[in-house]
Each structure stands twice: as C-alpha cells, then as structure tokens.
Amino acid sequence: MSINVTRRQFFKLGGAGLASSSLAMMGFAPEPAEASIRQFKLTYAKETRNTCTYCSVGCGILIYSKGDGAKNVEQNVFHIEGDPDHPVSRGSLCPKGAGLLDFVHSKGRLEYPQVREAGTSEWKRIGWDEALTRIARHMKDDRDANFVQRTAHGETVNHWTTTGFLAASGSSNEAGYITHKVVRNLGMVAFDNQARV
Amino acid sequence: MTNHWVDIRNANLILSMGGNSAEAHPVGFRWVTEAIEHNKAELITIDPRFTRTGAVAQDKAFIRTGTDIAFLGGLISYLIETDQIQHEYVLNYTDAALIVREGYGFEDGLFSGYDESTRSYDKQSWMYEMGDDGFVRRDETLQDPRCVYQLLREHYARYTPAMVSSITGIAVENIQRIWKKIAAMAVPDKTMTILYALGWTQHSIGSQIIRTAAMVQLLLGNMGMPGGGVNALRGHSNIQGLTDLGLLSQLLPGYMTLANAKEQDYRAYIDKRTKQPTVEGQVSYWKNYEKFHVSLMKAWYGDAANEANNWCFDWLPKLERPLYDILDTFERMSKGELNGYFCQGFNPLASFPNRAKVTKALSSLKYLVVMDPLNTETSEFWKNYGEYNDVDSSQIDTEVFRLPTCCFAEDEGSIVNSARWLQWHWSAAPPPGDARPDTRIMGELFLKLKQLYQEEGGVFPDPILNLTWDYRIPADPKADELAREFNGRALEDLTDEQGNVTRRAGEQLSGFAELTADGRTAAGCWIFAGCWTEAGNQMANRDNSDPYGTGNTLGWAWAWPMNRRILYNRASADVQGRPWGPDKAFIWWDSEQGAWVGADVPDFPTNSPPSQGQMPFIMQPEGVGHLFAGQSMVDGPFPEHYEPFESPVPQNLLHPGKEKARNNPAARIFEEDREALGKPEEFPHAATTYRLTEHFHFWTKHAELNAIVQPQQFVEIGEALADEIGIAAGDWVKVSSKRGFIKAVAVVTKRLRPMMIGDKQVHHVGIPLHWGFTGVAKKGYLVNALTPFVGDANTQTPEYKSFTVRVEKA
Question: Taking residues A32-40, what's their average pLDDT?
C-alpha cells in the first residue's frame, strides 16, 4: 500500500519530528521525483553510540550530530534514535526516550557558573575559577573547624559531618568513582545518592 | 536484577508487584510481552491501581498499599502447607535444614532481643546453632522443630487466606487463585520471575518485602534459573553503578563497608568482614575481603599505604552512628548542624519527604553547591514562586553556587543498567555554554583544596595530600583513566604457586581472582575488575550474538561480576550438575572437560565437580540461600507485616491491640516527625506516589516534547470517593497531609476502587510526582510536600508509597 501525499504534506510530517526514513518504509512516500529533492538528513551526520539517560533498562541510542569535522567546528546534536543492534532495546525508545533531543537542548540547561549571595533574590554569573575558589574556601574553613579526629571516648574517627554530599545516579561510573574518591578522602560521611531514596 | 531484561522472555510466569514496568520501563517491558507471546507465560500484577502493566496481564489483584508482606507471607504458608515446593532445591540450596539456636522466638509481633528504648534488636539469638565440628548443625528430614523450615512454617501459619484478605483488601478467592498459579512454578522445570521497583522499596518495611519475594523464589527453586530471579527494576540510568561504587554513607566501593567508631583495630575490622565457611567445604567468597580492601587502599594511597600502617586504615572516616543517610542528614541540617551541602545531579527539594522540613534545612546552611545540567528546584529553593515555593529570599542566608554540568550526550564513560551491564558511551557534542563534565569539576575542586592544605596546612591533611592523582591532565581526569583505575592493575609481578609470572607489573587485571592482600595489586572497585583488561575496554563490546538461544549475549557490554548474566547460576542445575529440565538448560557440569559449561559464565568455581558438594550461593558462608536472615537484617530474621507509619487502618490486624507492633518496631523515626504523622480520622485516605510513562522524575518537565504530552499536574481518585466528596472529573482539588498540601486537577477514574479492610472502606489516592516550579511544563506543586519523614528500618529509604491524605475541592 502506498499513500499519496504532496511534497508539502510530506515535509510537514517530517517536520513534526517523525523520522522521514521510517515514514518512507511504512509506505508514506511523496511522488517519486519530488522525494529526491531533499537528501536523507542523516547522510552527513556523525553517529555516536550512547545509552539513554533515563531509566535503568539502558536502551542503546544513536546520537546524530552535525559539524563538518573541520578543526574548531563544534558538533550540534540534531537527532537521536534507538540503536537497532542493541539486544535489549532492539531499536526502540519509550515516550521518555523519544524526547531525549529536547532534554539535550532544553531551555532549562545551565550554561555558566552562578552564585546567589546570602539574602539576595537573584543569580549572579561568575567564572569557574571564582566559583571553585570560593567553594574550596568554604569547604576548608568548615572542615578545619569541625573535622573530628577523635571522639570523646578517644576513638579515632577522622570524619567530617558538617558538610554533606549527594551524588548523581545519572552520572557515569567514572564520575561516581572520582566523586567517591574525593568525598571520602575529605572525611565526609553524610554521603548518599538516589539509591538511598 | 539477579537476572536480566532479555531473560524475562524465559519465564513461565511473571509476577509484577511493587512496580509498573509497562509505564516506568516500557522497553524492558517488551520482554514481558515477548514471554506472553512466545513462551505462553502468564503475567500477574498486584498493585493498588489498575495500571498499564495490569492492562495486559492475564490475572491481577488490587492490594492495599504497604501490605505486600501479608500477601507473600500467606503465599509462603500456602506453599508449605500444600507441599508445593521444589524439594531437592530447598533441601540442598537453601538453609531449610539448618538448625537455629535456642532462644530465638517471636511474640506479640516482636522478635527475640527487642529493646524498645533504642528501637533495635540484639541479634544474638538469630543465629544458626554450631555443632562440635565448628559447622552449622543440620537436619536432613526437615522435622526438627528448630530447623529453619519448621520455624518458617510456624511463623507464617498465622497468615491464613482470611487474615491476608482482611489486611490486603484482596478477596479470598482471588488470593487463592493467584497462589495456586504461583505454586505451579514449584516443579523443577518451570520458573516465575518477579519484577519489582520502588513500589516495594519505598516503605518502612521495604527491605523485608523484597526479602519475602526472595524467600518465595527459594521455595519454588527459581533463583539462579533462566526466567527466574528477583529483579529490581531500578529507576535511574546509573543508580546501579553508583550503588556498586559505594556512594552511600556507610559503604566503600564493591559493597565493602566503613568501620564504625568501635572498630579501632584493623585486624578485627578485616576479620569481622572475612566470612569463613560455616558449612564444611563451601566457597564463602567474602573470605577474600582483605584482598579487595587492600587493593582499594593501594588504588587510593599508592606507596603511602603499606602493611606497617595497616594500609592507612585510619585515613578512612569511621561512623559514629549506624547511618548518615539523607533522613538523618536533613534532620541534623534542620537543626543547624550542617554548614555545607553538595547536590550533584540530585534535586532533594523535590525528591525528599516533607518538603517543608527540607526547605527549613537548606535555609540553615551556610553554603549549598548544586552541580547539574538543569535548573533544579533545589538550586532555587530560596526564590519565591508564589504558592509553589512560598519563601522570603531575604530571610535565607544560604550562599548558593550553581555549576553547569554535561548531560549524557556530552559525556563519555560507562553506566550500569538494572541487569548489572556496564555499557560504554561516547560524547556526541560539546556541552552548552561553559558547562563542564563532573569528572573535571571534581578534579579541579580537589586540586584547589589540596593546594590550600599545602599552603596553609590544616586539620588531618594526610589523605588529601597523599591521594593518588596520576592523571594525564590532573585537573581533568578522563573516563578511560578512571575506568582503568577501578578495574585494577598489578603493581608488581604476580606469580602462581610454581613461581611463574602470571601478570606483569603495570598490566591491567583480568578479574578479581588476581587481587592480593599484600599490596601487589590496586583496584578501585573489585567487582568491576575485568571491565578494562589488557584486551581493552570490555564495556564497549558490541557483539549481540546469542549462541545458545537463551537470550544471553555475553559479547554485548560487560556485566559484573566477571561478565556473569544470571547470578547464582549454579542453581540452574541439580545437585548432580544436570539442568533441571531441557527448557531450562543454562549451565551444567561437563565431566569430560571437568568444568561447568553452558550459556553463561558460571557463577561458581569452574572446576569444582558436583561431587565436591559446593553449593550455589557462593557469597554466603553456608553456601545456600537464606530463608532465615540471621544477621543481615535489623528488623527480624523472617519478614513480618507491619502497617505503614501512616495508615488508614488503626491497628496491625496480626497483632490487634499491640501498639508496639503496629508499625515496624525497628524503624527509626525522629520525635518531631512522629508528631507530624496524621491520624486516620483527619486524613482517612491511603495515598501513594508514582511516575507516568511520559515523564522521568523532575527532569522531563524541562524537555518540550514530554511537557507537551503530559503538561498538567493531576491526581487520580476513584469514582466512589469522588461521589463521596462531590468532585467531578476536571475539578481542582486540594490534597493535604499533616505536613502540607498540593493542588491539582482531579482525574476521576475506574482505575482506583474502594477496598474493604476489616469493616472499613478504604479509598486510595494516586499522586503522580513529576511537577515543580522550574521547567517548561505547567508549574505545579512538589508532591513531597505530603510525604512522611520516616524510612525503611534497614536502608532508611523514605515511605513515599504509603501515607494518608484528605482530599477536598480546591
């Protein structure tokens, strides 16, 4: 079965966020001559293998980005789809995963370090060095003032309970590992991730 | 998961309870429908609501929230009394025959050893009895009144169908029909898989609900079997990995534990964790604990850790309280006992219970650091958003730093799925603006602190100044370097017993069997050893072939431990090492090769013949699965039903009139939070929170597509309740608990029906949790305004799934 659509309707369908390639497979195809006007949009894209960031099924995804590969040209992600080779997901994505592209380009993405000073009601943009320098200062002052080497009973504990840390179960093992390495060696014990809740 | 996603297709029966995978894990759920289509499996769902999982189930029941132990405990009694258990399995692969010490008992809802003043148990009487040979005593006939099997039988004899019905609200005939179907899985060549999620975890008895499920699976002979197992469908993409890496208050990587303050002696600390076999000849793999521990210390401290200084044992923090979990931390924070807090990809204002208390706690901090790709509610807890966040910024003195991080698409590394697969991913593009990877932020922050300690000195700088930090770019450690570090490497040449070199110094280790306790190996997370070997990055493997047709793709990614896909898989064969049935052949003993062979990497010593008598549960000192949890649980060796801390039912029907046994007697609750619990007269409805298929927690309200398909906050109420309080579909309602309120649109539905509990009618209120005051969806109320500040006795996971509310027209 083939459904006739005009070129204009075809682009409209494509523009609604559905992959034009699969539309063609399903029998939605414009008149042949017109279809060739637009190239397959993934032709010159860079394909990167990744894993869906939401639940723990771990569906394989293919991220398509553009940029011509030249020096100093940055890639821009423009399409994400399921990885058909993946033995669990076999190319599928769920309603959450189908929106991954909008997560990458969300208006809610943070772009610059900021500080909200005590008692104020707004953010102020600051540089990374200033942010990390101020944070490190806070940490050291608190650690030096409140680190407990021995309890009242004389037991060695070497812990720091007045600053705590929540780690991210959306981050990679490598980020998790280095976070654990740093946090624990500062002596922190009030340390959890989403697995606690 | 003890098993894995694709393996669900091998099940003959699927029990979905405490989860709604069709909506929360839709792509994984396709393996459930695959089992229904191609393996003639039945799906049974047991849930307070009619869910999309239930919509495709062949059988279902509706259960009052928080009463799962009653249902499963009754099932255990039914299996025993009707003798529908897998006999050879239960006798040999479980502790059914082991004898429990004199003194263990259970009375008036309390186990022996209870101390009301500390709300805790002395577990001395919860132990097996040792014989003169130093090993646990055993009764092969299962008749000894103190053998685990008889104690188990006695414990659950109280869970009659009538009792289970009166607690759970499920009619007796429905209970019995479902029990019968489950009992049919006791034959050796049929398996049931159990799928659960946070609907089991988030209760004050959550850990024990899950344990009851494991006990059912042991009685049915379903652990270690293809199509069997107890399968936690985990929520976040790498929540398994962060658990494995030990980012929890009491853990070290690989499920090792920090010392408590009483454990001052290194040798005693190690000995306590070094589990020697308590049944003769068993593997008891934790006997290698010191190898894992010393290798971690070498990974962290390098040459600074040596035998003479106990491998820097005192450099690790020790615990002065059992847990510094999030409830404990926010309790202390709300009292002004914390000065600083970091939220790395975590949104506690939205995610933690009793939002009013969380706001108070965050407001008392001196500094808060938020590292996130998104503009979270937590980062703006100080900002007024009207009724959605009614605060006065000028009264909040917390200095808040917000650091932009990469998201998945801009990040490289591995994440662990629910099936324990470590899958590598690559970065597709740079992050927006000046966002940075978490690895770099942690690296730079650490180097700044180290520099301050070098320049100024300070308190106990030793672990900071000596932490190994040999990364190519010290301020920006790369994923490959970190992965190689947690896999582990040889620091000196390793040799076998004949003195032959088996591993050159500097080489990556092939697995944890190579680790040593003498400082010759370093490994940051022993259970991940094997993920990045001399053969390269195993996590990036991409061969999806399935040579045995079992759905076991050993060449795809890498699973811990040692690429094993089904844990305890030795139990998929009988005592002689033969598969339990032709359809369930998975691994078996090949006498010609003198090895275990088959579709998986054996979770067992490869060359240990069946005649040697080693049993499948190699991490347990007895070699068998535990029906009796001697020491691992804080709230009882057998699970017992207790009511949620907020319940529409005024007493525990198993223990009427026994106030101490109404709620979990070993669960911790702070005084202020106990006072903030509602009474059934004022808050009569059972409430439960959950997710929708279009959304992921508080993230997707920032993604346009998801916000479009599910823009508006709502709550679900049944038609009967709507009639009772005069609500029509689409009306705005106010839902209140003793701690706060939300307003939302009412969805009046047939999906929630009233239940008779004793002589009382109980309504459930369903509360999806995805809205907040940041993002592109319509603004909404954080539902954790409602939830109680009390957690599971073992894990302190908050009781989000069972509490009480009142619903009225807004």
Answer: 63
Which residues of chain B does A196 touch, with a Cβ-Cβ cutoff of 8 Å?
A: 248-249, 325-326, 795-797
**For residue B400, which residues of chain A lie inside 8 Å, CB to CB?**
115-116
Does some domain include residue A140?
Answer: yes
Nearest Cα to Cα of residue B602 among B542, B661, B562, B660: B562
Q: And the tokens for A60? A: 């394989």
Predicted local confidence at residue A72, as pLDDT: 77
What is the tally of structural domains in chain A? 3
Q: How far apart are CA B802 and CA B476, in angstroms?
A: 44
Nearest to A173 among B415, B428, B436 (CB): B415
Residues B343/B370, Cβ–Cβ less than 8 Å: yes
Task: Name chain B contacts of A100, Cβ cutoff 8 Å.
Answer: 409, 703
Residue B518 binned pLDDT confidence (cut-offs 50, 70, 90): very high
Of B25, B384, B800, the CB nearest to A57: B25
Report the C-alpha gap between A184 and B316 in whole angstroms.
Answer: 7
Beta strand B536-537 pairing with B558-559 = unpaired
Please, which residues have CB within 8 angstroms of residue B546's CB and are 6 or more apart in sequence? A87, B552, B553
Predicted pLDDT of residue B3: 98
C-beta of residue B791 within 8 angstroms of C-beta of residue B327: yes
The per-residue pLDDT for range B98-119, each reduced to its tens digit, is 999 999 999 999 999 999 999 9
CA distance A26 to chain B (A): 21
Looking at beta carbons, which residues of chain B come within 8 Å of A186?
A: 449, 463-464
Per-residue pLDDT of B172-217, as tens digits, reads: 999 999 999 999 999 999 999 999 999 999 999 999 999 999 999 9
Tell me the CATH number for domain B6-232. Answer: 3.40.228.10
Give percent helix, percent strand, percent coil of chain A, each to the nearest 5.
Answer: 30, 25, 45
Say whether residue A147 is in contact with chain B using an 8 A CB cutoff: yes
What is the reported pTM? Answer: 0.95
- What is the CATH T-level fold of the domain B326-452, as seen in this structure? Rossmann fold (3.40.50)
Dist CA B626 CA B155 (whole Å): 15
| Claim to verify: residue A162 and residue A95 sit in the same structural domain | no
Are B339 and A193 inside 8 Å of each other by CB? no
| B574-596: pLDDT as tens digits | 999 999 999 999 999 999 999 99
Phi-psi region for residue B234, left (φ > 0), alpha (ψ -120 to 50) or beta? Answer: beta
Considering the domain boundaries, does residue A126 fall inside one?
A: yes
Question: What would the CATH number be for the domain defined by B659-809?
Answer: 2.40.40.20
Same domain membership, residue A167 and residue A119: yes
Residue A69 is predicted with a pLDDT of: 67
* Chain A (70-129) residues lying within 8 Å, Cβ to Cβ, of chain B: 74-77, 80, 85-90, 92-104, 106-121, 123, 128
Q: Does one domain contain both A118 and A192?
A: yes
> B407 contacts in A (CB within 8 Å)?
53, 103-104, 109
Which of A56, A116, A189 shows the shortest C-beta gap to B240?
A56
Claim to verify: residue A129 and residue A93 sit in the same structural domain: no
In a domain, residue A174? The reply is: yes
**Pairs of residues, one from chain A and one from chain B, whose beta carbons lie less than 8 Å apart:** 489
* CB–CB contact A158 B315 (8 Å): yes
Cβ-defined contact of A48 to B703 (cutoff 8 Å) = no
In this structure, the answer to whether residues A129 and A185 fall within a common structural domain is: yes
Q: Which residue of B has its CA nearest to A101?
A: B703
- Residue in chain A lying closest to B262 (CA): A155
How many whole angstroms from its chain centre is CA B76?
Answer: 23
Mean pLDDT along residues B706-715: 97
| CA B410/CA A109 separation, integer angstroms | 13
Look up the domain containing A25 and give its range.
3-35
Cα B626 from Cα B214, distance rounded (Å): 9
**Out of B31, B241, B393, closest to residue A176 by CB:** B241
> What confidence tier does A14 reach under pLDDT thresholds 50, 70, 90?
very low
In a domain, residue A29? The reply is: yes
Tell me: the pLDDT tens digits for B365-388? 999 999 999 999 999 999 999 999
Domain ranges of chain B: 6-232, 240-315+473-538, 326-452, 659-809
